[in-house]
Amino acid sequence: MQAVFTQGSIMRHILVMTLSSTVGLLSLFLVDLVDMYFLSLLGQQELAAAVGFAGTLLFFLTAISIALSIGMGAKVSQSLGQQRLEKARQYCVHTLIFSFLFSLAVVIPVWLESDTLLRFLGADGRTLELAIVYTHILLPSTPILAMSMGLASALRAAGDPRRSMYAIAAGGVANAILDPILIFGLDMDIAGAAWSSFIARFVILGIAGTYVIMRHGLITSPNWSEWWTDIRSLATVSGPAMLTNLATPVGSSYVMKTMAEFGDDAVAGAAIIGRIVPVAFCGLFALSGAVGPIIGQNMGAGDYYRVRHTLGDASKFIAGYVMVVWAILFFLSDFIISSFDASGDARHLINQYCLWIAPGFFFNGLLFVANASFNNTNSAYLATLFNFSRAFLGTIPFVALLSNQFGAVGVLIGEIAGGVMFGTLAMGTAVYRANHLTRSMVEKEAPDTVKETNACQWSYCSDKSALGQQVVESGENS
C-alpha cells in the first residue's frame, strides 16, 4: 500500500483530507444541532440546559474515544509510511480490541455515579432529571463510539478520507431521520434524541468496519503474543493524547459549572453555542484529523521538510476559514437566535458570541494542528502539556476573573482568552520542533552531499550554501 502523502502538493492533501472529513463531521455535528433545535421546539428551556449538562459529562468519554483513535491513526499511518502493511493491520485490530475494553471499564463507574457527577456540574431539579435520562441512554454506547472512531481514523491513515466520511455521514443521516420520529412521533422528548444518537453509532461502526475490512484489508487475526507490546506502543501516543483530550472537558466542566451560577437561561445559551461552534468550525476540527496522517506518513518516511510545510499550510487554511465563518455568524446572529427561540441571557450570549467572540477560535485551530503534529512526531507529551495548561492556567483563572466582571458573557470571553495564549505558544513550539528536525536531517545529509557535489570551486560559495539552496527548492516544490 502506497504512502500517498509523502509526495505531491501538501496544501492539496490538506484541502482534500479536510474537505472529506468535514462533510462527515458536519453530518454528525449538524445532528447535534438539529437535536437541540427539535428540543427547543418543545418550548422547555430545561431541555436545552439538560443536554448541556449531559453533553459536558459525555464529553469526557468522547475525549477518551478521540485519544484512542489518534493512537490508531498515528500508528497505522507511520507503519504504512514505513511500508509495513502487516504491522499496520496488527495495530488496527489490537487497537480496536483495546478501545472496546478500555471504554467499557470507564463507562461502568460513570454510569453508576452519573447523578452525583451531574449535580457537581450544577444540574438540579427538573433539569437534573432530564440530564440523567439522556446520560443513562447514551453512555452504554461509548465502546461502540470508540471502535467507530478508531475505524474512521484507520481509513484516514490509509489515505481514504472519502470512505471515512461516508461512514460518519451515514450515522448522521440515520440520526437525523430518527430524531423527529422518536422525539415527536413517539413522543419520547429528550429520550428520543438520546436513542437516535445511540443507534447512529452502530451504523457508523458497521459501515466503517466494512470499508476497513473489504476495501483496505486492514484487519487481521489478533497476534496475542504481540498484543501487549503493541498496546504499550499505542499508549505512547494514546496515553498522552488521552490526557491532552481530557483537559478540554475539564475546562468545559468548569465553564459549565460557572455558567450554571447565572441560571438555566445562561446554561441553555451556552449549550446552544456548544452545538453551533462544532458546525461553524467543523473544518478546523476536520483539519486536526487531516494533518495527522499527512505528518505521520512523512515522519515515517523521514521527510521533515514536508512536516514543516504542513504546519505552515495548515495555519494559512485556519486563518482563511475563520474569517469566512465569522462573517457568516455575524450576519446570521439574529436568525440563529430566533430559530432556537432564545430569550434572556441565552439570547444575549448567542448574540455576543456571533458578533465578536467567534474569531478567537482561530487560536483553537492553531492548538488543534499543533497537537496533531506533536502526536505524530513522537512528542505527544507536548500536546498534553499545552492542553492542560490551557484548561487550568488559560481557562479557569480567566473565566473566574471575567465572569465576575462581565457576568455570563465573561465566561465565554475567559474561555477564548486561554485559547489565544496557548494556541499561539503551541504552534510556535510545533514550528520550532519541525525546524529542528529539518536541521537534523540536513546535518545528516551534508557529508554525502559534499561528496556528490565535489565542493564548490569559488571563494564566495560553499557546499553548505548549495545544500541550503537545495533545501529551499525542495520546500518550494512541496
Describe it.
α4 packs across α5 (125-138). This protein is mainly α and 478 residues long. It starts with 9 loop residues before the first helix and ends with a helix. It contains 17 helices and no strands. The chain has one domain (4-477). It is 86% helix and 0% strand.
Layout of helices and strands:
Blueprint: H1 10-41, H2 45-81, H3 85-112, H4 114-121, H5 125-138, H6 142-157, H7 161-185, H8 190-215, H9 224-260, H10 264-280, H11 282-300, H12 304-339, H13 345-357, H14 361-375, H15 380-406, H16 408-453, H17 463-477
Helix pairs in contact: 1-7, 1-10, 1-11, 1-12, 2-3, 2-4, 2-5, 2-6, 2-9, 2-10, 2-11, 3-6, 3-9, 4-5, 5-8, 6-7, 6-8, 7-8, 9-15, 9-16, 10-13, 11-12, 11-14, 12-13, 12-14, 12-16, 13-16, 14-15, 14-16, 15-16, 16-17
In short:
The chain has one domain (4-477). It contains 17 helices and no strands.
Give the overall shape, derived from the CA principal axes: globular
Spatial gap, N to C terminus:
22 Å
Low-confidence stretches: 449-478
Q: What is the mean pLDDT?
A: 81
Number of strands: 0
How large, in whole angstroms, is the Cα Rg? 23 Å
Structural class comes to mainly alpha
Strand content: under 5%
Oligomer state equals: single chain
Integer count of domains: 1
| SSE succession | HHHHHHHHHHHHHHHHH
Range of helix content:
over 70%
